[in-house]
Backbone:
């Protein structure tokens, strides 16, 4: 398994407190991962989930779209540092809208 140092450094540079960084050990292909599950439980309205890349959340577009919708309904933002996606911006919301369309097309 590769070293998480790059991800930790990127999160620290993005203003994440070291005590708020949670590292997952399981593959992103799994829907249920203990570290991600914990983080999702800890998030409250007005919080922002920061990740280095979308593939750190999931390998499935459908899972990403579902997760994005859940965060939006809860009033939680999503900031993907290396890909410049921030759902607090119109562009970031548009990216998730495009992912929704792709997920819908692949399901049909």
Residues:
């Amino acid at each position: 398994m590769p070293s998480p140092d790059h991800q930790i450094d990127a999160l620290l540079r993005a203003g994440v407190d070291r005590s708020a960084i949670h590292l997952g050990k399981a593959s992103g292909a799994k829907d249920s991962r203990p570290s991600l599950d914990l983080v999702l439980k800890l998030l409250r309205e007005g919080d922002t989930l920061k990740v280095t890349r979308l593939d750190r959340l999931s390998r499935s577009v459908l899972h990403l779209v579902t997760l994005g919708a859940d965060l939006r309904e809860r009033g939680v933002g999503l900031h993907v540092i290396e890909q410049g996606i921030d759902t607090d911006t119109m562009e970031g919301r548009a990216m998730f809208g495009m992912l929704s369309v792709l997920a819908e097309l692949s399901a049909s």
About this structure: The first strand starts at residue 48 and ends at 51. The longest helix spans residues 90-107. The chain has a mean pLDDT of 82.
